[in-house]
Amino acid sequence: ISHPLNRARYDENKRIVTGGFGLIQPKIGIDIESANTSKFTRIFAGQGGVDPYTTASSDVYQDLFSEGSFTGKGIYDVQLFNRVLMDEVPDNSILSHDLLEGSYIRAGLATDIELIDGYPSKYSSYIMRSHRWARGDWQLLPWLGGSVKNRQGEKIKNPLSTLSKWKILDNLRRSILPISELLIIILGLTILPGNGLYWVAITLFSMGFPILLEFMNFLISKNYKTLRENVNSKIVYGIKEPLYQTCILFVFLPHRAYMMLDAIIRTLYRIFVSKKNLLEWVTAADVEKTLTNDLKSSIRRMIVSVVIAVLTIVLALYSNVINGLLAIPIGFLWLISPVIAHNLSRKVDREEELGDEDRRVLRRIARKTWSYYEDFASQGDNYLPPDNFQEEPDNGIAHRTSPTNIGFLLISILSAKDFGYISTIDLIDYLKKTLTTIERLETWKGHLFNWYNTQTLDVLRPLYISTVDSGNYIGYLITLKEGLKELLF
């Protein structure tokens, strides 16, 4: 954020940052344990964990308008923040402050920096969080107009850009979506002209559009084979992910629509009538602590889904027999939605035995990993591991290495002995050759530099010490030492 090109430029007349960034928003990932807490999180939270090499992401706002959206976690210019926002916003009026703050002092998205967040493990806490977010989004309604009230209650010109107003409006649209989808289905099965199947199909197409996008990506990437061989997890991935999500969101549609309608009406009443409870806020973690997940509680919380399901079936049968027959399976899914929510939200058993197929997959990966070091950490590279080998497009061996790579080689040699790929004599020979090379490397106060040429052993410029790589290297040496002790005894 202190980079000269990122330095925020504040316009005194517009009372807003017009260039640079007052906020840097990193990419937000999901904690890997949180992503595997329940069946619900396995479907909605994604893979979890940190994987910067294969999950590079793009953002429309940052790419097209050089401006990201602040979502509550990041780094900001404290002095600029106070200068811009000190008197702009009325006290006790804004719940979802992050989007508004980013609109005033301009946020830049940095997807190569990642912070880890949790994910609600239960549908109940998930929908309560969505309810809170919707209330916060609708409290920004005044900022869509030409003027807003400042901290002193005076009406002043709204300084937000058209792009910022669009972001606010888009959030409002998102909260209305479940309501409109439910209305189209109910009205299509009761009073709208034509076959009810037509209206249901339109809604399902809208809800399931991510399935079509994923299928197109599936074809474009020519990934016709399942990813089963490369995924050692029970997460839902590929086309199955949007398919499962669409099905579950459809089953929960009446309850989601009710919660969004409640959030909107509640917020409008508080903004324009009562002026109270605008900062009502409970974290998802606290919600999970207080909400029980037994079947009775799930039915009680989602009773509105049962009511809507029964009314839809009755009204559809009264309106048209054909539409009524169509409404029966739809209504049945809505009727049992509390049971489905309960089952999806139950914590999964973490203690699982590896099956024979999983063991074969892991052993194949282990053998291929050792083959890499066996082939490339050779005399030509002074028994050091090259950083990578690029097969397609052909770029050959990258003749450079780091302390982390060297540490990986050392514990791979030890692991190869444990797996039976090499003998004890081979283990000693491999370690001796690599450790002899390490002793020849130029160091700084005992620390290995971060990059070396594996063929000449020269330090690659710029010369620097990485605390991360050095820490990894020490960790691997400790592991190697303990492993060799086991071999001795």
Please provide a written account of the structure.
The two termini are 54 Å apart. Strand 8 and strand 9 form a beta hairpin. Helix 6 crosses helix 10 (253-274). The chain is mostly helical. It has helices spanning 39-44, 60-65, 78-85, 97-105, 123-138, 162-190, 196-207, 209-220, 240-251, 253-274, 284-290, 295-301, 303-319, 321-335, 337-345, 356-376, 403-419, 424-440, 467-488; strands spanning 9-11, 16-19, 23-30, 75-76, 107-117, 147-149, 155-157, 388-390, 396-398, 400-401, 443-444, 447-448, 452-453. The chain is built from 19 helices and 13 strands.
Primary descriptors:
about 500 residues; mainly alpha; three-stranded mixed sheet; two-stranded antiparallel ribbon; 19 helices; 13 strands; about 55% helix; globular
Topology:
Elements: E1 9-11, E2 16-19, E3 23-30, H1 39-44, H2 60-65, E4 75-76, H3 78-85, H4 97-105, E5 107-117, H5 123-138, E6 147-149, E7 155-157, H6 162-190, H7 196-207, H8 209-220, H9 240-251, H10 253-274, H11 284-290, H12 295-301, H13 303-319, H14 321-335, H15 337-345, H16 356-376, E8 388-390, E9 396-398, E10 400-401, H17 403-419, H18 424-440, E11 443-444, E12 447-448, E13 452-453, H19 467-488
